[in-house]
Specification:
123 residues; mainly beta; 7-stranded mixed β-sheet; 4-stranded antiparallel β-sheet
Length: 123
């Protein structure tokens, strides 16, 4: 199993940046993928990005160029660097994981979920 804990959310002004972290514990010696998802109030959860154990990344089309996903396997931590933030990026951001050598931005692929961290973009 994987236990996932997000951190790094907060309030930021439009155009600002935040770095979210997803710390994994449990069976971290296995090959696992991590995805970032977000859910805005009143909207469905949507995939943002994912990264495989070997560092292959996938981004949702609307994220490209603004967000960067990375991972430090020695620390069992995955990061989501968010830049040029917009009010419409306001949401609860979740990281999720599953054991496998590929990754996906589809939530149905994931077995393990963190509790989420709130990101608010407002002036």
């Amino acid at each position: 199993q994987l236990q996932l804990v997000e951190s790094g959310g907060g309030l930021v002004q439009p155009g600002g940046s935040l770095r979210l972290s997803c710390a994994a514990s449990g069976f971290t010696s296995g090959y696992y993928a991590i995805g970032w998802f977000r859910q805005a109030s009143g909207k469905e959860r949507e995939g943002v990005s994912c990264i495989t154990n070997s560092g292959i990344t996938v981004y949702a089309d609307f994220m490209k160029g603004r967000f960067t996903i990375s991972r430090d396997n020695a620390k069992n931590t995955v990061y989501l660097q968010m830049t040029s933030l917009k009010p419409e990026d306001t949401a609860v951001y979740y990281c999720a994981g599953f054991f496998g050598v590929w990754c996906s931005t589809r939530s149905s692929a994931y077995n393990y979920w963190g509790q989420g961290t709130q990101v608010a973009v407002s002036s």
